[in-house]
């Protein structure tokens, strides 16, 4: 009997959106593996040149039982793993940047001939997905890489069941989050954060226009206000009928995970209370708020964010991102 195509929930959108926590919540279900930012497996797991080469379980990717098995199987047909890893990361940079999203979509729809190297690159990613499915992700693999062009390209694979989850967050909250460094994550100015926010979300919307029922957009704010309901919505979109791991009060117990790099919050374990985060209303300066609002105004209303914010939500006990 033919092997069932791995089912992938690829998360896209800009960073600091709460996708790490969402992935770890889904990871609590049987047969579901949140792999974090799988895009960086070659850079972190083989070259060990990324900002963080540790797995979410606390071990290095080379020592982690799951990723060591995947890397060993992946490299078994590769005489020089280091040379291959350099080749893959160069291809990723050349073909999977945000600006490549429209081209990758056209290829996925069969409208244009794939660019040289893209099929080889996607073959390697598909091989890794299949290996991860055999290591415990047989029902769903949650990939939080957040590269819109990669999500677009993967939609064209007939050997994968890919659904794209676009997560958005108020850019002013994102700007505040980026004002502070997080261990190995450097801070970013509000203007730069806003430009990235716009570019990544517009690219993700291109996917939505093309993917039809294989695309879902959710907001960080809805996830934090109604976590059980939104997680249930995501589960149904991903093709799972499980009950949400989050209870009515917004509590969830997080165990270990095997995420490849990502937000340091991926290391959080134990009982976690999901609540809204309204700190940007009082902690982001008026000047920074004005800068972010001006740069992102065209998309604020589209996502339901007021240009002149009104109600302030209660302060959270936990920050989602």
TrEMBL record:
Q: Does the keyword Transferase apply?
A: yes
Quote any Pfam family the record assigns: Sulfotransfer_3
Indicate whether Transferase appears among the record's keywords: yes
InterPro entries per record:
Gal/GlcNAc/GalNAc_ST, P-loop_NTPase
Name one molecular function that GO assigns to this entry.
Answer: N-acetylglucosamine 6-O-sulfotransferase activity
Sorted alphabetically, the keyword list is: Transferase
Q: Which GO terms describe its biological process?
A: N-acetylglucosamine metabolic process; sulfur compound metabolic process
Descriptive protein name? Sulfotransferase
Which organism was this protein described from? Streptomyces inhibens
